[in-house]
């Protein structure tokens, strides 16, 4: 049933330089995530070359030395035991400086002003920071970054559309079985069908009772004066012991 349609499908060939094929390739290249990050992947494969005396390296080393706990306490360890005692801790300038530093580093005192004022802040909706955040969100949003093309529509009287509809009708199971819908729900007896009649005929051909007739069922009357009967009687008399 579908042999002609399968042969027709194999005979169709679309040229690779048609506008529709070129447009599909361009759209695939535009929405391809692999091509989108290809330049970044190539840049990462090249690696980098940074000298030991580069400014970022020197800055990182200086920051590490400043943040180092050993460097931070080195001056204190050198001066330990070089000063004499004072009447009270408040009179010692270094102890007072240390107490001041502890008070500044205390987390409770550090966040006290913030906790007192955080419920009193009101940011207007047209503030520069809010507007900048909205603009940044718009720039990094994937929804506004990609503009998808509209859906193409075809005219109903085009040859390819008509051919596609005919192919769909030929392949449609509903159209293929529509002439049998009136049989759904109707009862049907096997008596009189082709297979039943064929089985009956085969049974009659193989039935030995109908094929052969037993001798005792034959109705006949023999003729008494036929030559064979007279010969049989004569032979019986000649052979009779009586």
From TrEMBL:
The keyword Repeat applies. SMART domains: NEBU. It comes from the Eukaryota. It holds the Pfam family Nebulin. Keywords: Actin-binding, Repeat. GO terms for molecular function: actin filament binding. GO terms for biological process: cardiac muscle thin filament assembly. GO terms for cellular component: Z disc. This is NEBU protein. It comes from Climacteris rufus (rufous treecreeper).
């Amino acid at each position: 049933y579908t042999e002609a349609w399968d042969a027709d499908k194999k005979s169709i060939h679309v040229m690779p330089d048609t506008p529709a094929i070129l447009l599909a390739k361009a759209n695939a290249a535009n929405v391809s995530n692999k091509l989108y990050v290809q330049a970044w992947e190539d840049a990462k494969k090249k690696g980098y070359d940074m000298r030991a005396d580069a400014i970022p390296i020197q800055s990182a080393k200086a920051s590490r030395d400043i943040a180092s706990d050993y460097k931070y306490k080195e001056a204190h360890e050198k001066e330990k035991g070089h000063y004499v005692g004072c009447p009270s801790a408040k009179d010692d300038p270094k102890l007072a400086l240390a107490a001041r530093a502890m008070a500044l580093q205390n987390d409770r005192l550090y966040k006290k002003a913030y906790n007192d004022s955080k419920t009193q802040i009101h940011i207007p909706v047209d503030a520069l920071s809010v507007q900048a955040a909205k603009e940044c969100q718009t720039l990094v949003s994937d929804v506004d970054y990609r503009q998808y093309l509209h859906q193409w529509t075809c005219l109903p009287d085009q040859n390819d559309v008509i051919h596609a509809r005919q192919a769909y009708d030929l392949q449609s199971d509903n159209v293929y079985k529509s002439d049998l819908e009136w049989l759904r729900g109707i009862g049907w007896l096997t008596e009189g069908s082709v297979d039943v009649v064929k089985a009956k005929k085969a049974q009659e051909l193989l039935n030995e009772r109908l094929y052969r007739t037993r001798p005792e069922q034959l109705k006949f009357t023999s003729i008494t004066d036929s030559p064979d009967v007279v010969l049989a009687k004569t032979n019986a008399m000649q052979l009779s012991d009586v």
